[in-house]
Amino acid sequence: MAEVISMTDDEIVLQVRVKLHGSMMSMEENIQSAVNEIGSLATQNALKRFDTIGAPIQVANVRMTSKGQIRKRYETPYGSVDVMRHVYQTSSGGKTYCPLDERARIITSSTPRFARLVSSKYARLTAQEVMDDLLTNHGRPVVRSFLQNVVDVVGSLAQITEEDWMYETPEQDEDVTTVSISLDGTCVLMCDEGWREAMTGTISLYNSTGDRLHTTYIGAAPEYGKTKFLDRLAREVYNIKLQYPNAIYVGIADGAKTNWEFLDHHTQYQVLDFYHATEYLSDASHAIYPSNEKKRKIWLELACHQLKHESNAAKSLLEEMKNALLKRTQKTIIGKLQAAITYFTNQGHRMGYEYFLTKNLPIGSGVTEAACKTLIKQRLCQSGMKWKTQGMSMVLCLRALIYTKSRWDQFWDRINQVGLVGLANI
After folding, report:
1. 248 and 185, same structural domain?
2. CB 231 within 8 A of CB 420
3. Rounded to two decimals, what is the model's pTM?
């Protein structure tokens, strides 16, 4: 049993007895339990320091008096602790107010560090996996309702502050010469609407040699028209341009029209993702050499190299595909070849890869496609999962904060500085 040995205004001394017998595993489990005991006791005493002495207080020019000390159970990284704290109310009744909850930055019934830990895990794992992880690896049992309540508050706060907070992009050790902006979507199963497209956006910083230095991630739940997502991405682009006004801005995407409408407005160069273009060349190769696999592979390899390294290659390949079309009669072959011809006709002006590479500009949207998997697929598309818009939106918001370097820390630093209004529902 942990106990307090001494305590001053800014320090506490604790002791705990740990039994060292049995296997090393058993002793480690005993040590973990002892650490949790000490942590719980220390946190319990730390919480008391945020309480008042019970004197009347003013909240927004309204006088409130204490109803006395009322017990509340708080959840900490080490265990549950009960604390007697003053709860206030006006003379006319109404909502109660707990100064301790506000001053200590309590989120529902969780201490801030535990709320951060829980929401971070939930952004990566299912609720059951978080519960199992806390119990198995931390010796910390929690119930599902507590977990979901904390995540709801943290996730909602992250969503609400998206428009109001300007996160700082970390300073880079090297000069940022290029900024790429890219967006893509992937389908997620919704509870009532079937499969819908969730969106991912990335803003990547590059040095003069084309090495990626940093990426900002944005995730958005399905919406009709993508207006909210595009507005958020535009705000991020605006902030980046304030920080790097002299960088070259490159937009990278596949052939979707709405993507180009956005990128045309915000970037100097628009680049069709090179690997999307090569997929159409692969289809064309089957039409040009339908029965000769060896020649087909050789043609595809040469065509991809030509597209990437030769000037006006897209135009030359387009003419070659048009000529091949005249010699084909099979409908399936003609269909694939015609699709490639249409794609190169519409997107050819965005295929100047040879020029882009000489400028060390990115030509692929691999970062964004990887983000679709990292932000969306890994967490939201597990077996049997169906989502409601609000739940998905919160998870994507949390994941974007976590995967964008320094943003998760900035988010919690601001909570620590500004705090939340503590309302105790007694």
Report:
1. yes
2. no
3. 0.89
